[in-house]
Amino acid sequence: MAKNIQIIIILLTLISCQSKQEKLIGHWHEFKTNNSEYLNCYKITDSTIGINSLSNGGYDDNRRGSDIEQSEILSLANDNYNWTSDYKISGNKLILNDSIFWIKQTDKKKSFLSDFSAGLLLEIKPFESDKSEFDFKPNDSTIGNYIFVGKLKNSILNKYKKYDKEKYYIQLNDKIGQTKDIIPFLLCNHCDMRKQLVFMHVDRDTPKELLSEMESEMEKINVRKRQIYFLTINTVELKSGYNHSY
C-alpha cells in the first residue's frame, strides 16, 4: 500500500492546471519494463484514487482499494514521503522512470476481467452471473476479511520452482497459505466470530472440494455460510458484487 501511495503522490502533488489533471483521469495499468504481467490498477477521477479496488476489496478497516481522496493522500505525503515531478504522459502511456510505466485502459470486458487479479500473486476469473444486483449491501461500518483462491501467476511460478502451475492456491494477505492457515488468519480473540464477514475472491474453476474444505475450517470458529460472500461478476454490464452462493 505504501508503494502505491508513493506512486500516486508523484502524480498528484504536482497537478497545477486542469488540462494536466484531465490527462490523469481514467483507468490505468502499471507495468514493469520487460514484464507482460501488470502490477497494479489505478482508477483516477478528478478527486479520488482507486488502487486495485476490484482485487483488494474496499470494505475492510484498512481501506485497501477504497476510493481515497486526493487531499487525504497529500496529507499522508507531507508526513511520510518525498516525491518528484519527473514523469511524462504521451498518448495512452505514462512514463514514471526507466522501469515503471502505465498504460491507459479502455473500459471493456478484457480490462474489467483482468482487474480482479491486480496486485495479487494469483490469477482470478470470478464466478459469473447475469444479475446486476448482488446479495451483499456494503455500508460504512462493514468490516471483513478477504481470502483469494486461484492459480499462481507466471512471475511467481518462475521465481519459486516449488509451486505447481496446475494447482489452486490460497492467498492470505500477501502470502500463499494452506487450508490450515485460515483459522489463525481469521481468528480474533476479542471478536464475536459470528458477526465477522468473509469475502472470497475465487477463480471460477477452483475445485469445489477445496472450497468445501475452506468452509469447514471456518465453521470450526463459528463462521457460518451466511457470513461468507463470493465475488461475482456480470461481464455484460461490467458490474461486480458479492453473493452467498457460487
UniProtKB/TrEMBL annotation:
Protein species of origin: Flavivirga aquimarina
Source species, domain of life: Bacteria
Protein name: Lipoprotein
